[in-house]
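FAQ

Q: What does a record look like?
A: Structure on top, sequence underneath. For example:
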């Protein structure tokens, strides 16, 4: 199945809808979040997850809530895992009484 994923990596959302929209460089945004440039770059390019700590930093600096960023990360993670779990062909448990 080669369909477009409905949930983009939240780092891409952060990059496109916040960092780029505000005209910030990665270096500027990293300084504002008090993280290293490579750490933020990894998130923005989908190579690292948004951690609970990072979600709190983002909400403090750019607004919104940490829960929104964490929900996006969980939705993305679940969508990435669905094909793997489908391949396991798991069966629902049915208690025999």
């Amino acid at each position: 199945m080669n369909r477009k994923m409905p949930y983009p990596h939240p780092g891409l959302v952060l990059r496109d809808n916040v960092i780029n929209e505000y005209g910030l460089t990665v270096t500027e945004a990293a300084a504002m979040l008090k993280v290293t440039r490579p750490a933020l770059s990894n998130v923005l390019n989908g190579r690292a997850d948004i951690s609970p700590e990072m979600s709190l930093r983002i909400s403090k600096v750019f607004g919104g809530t940490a829960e929104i960023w964490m929900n996006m990360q969980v939705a993305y993670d679940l969508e990435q895992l669905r094909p793997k779990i489908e391949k396991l062909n798991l069966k629902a448990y049915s208690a025999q009484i």
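Q: Is there anything notable about this one?
A: The chain has five helices and no strands.
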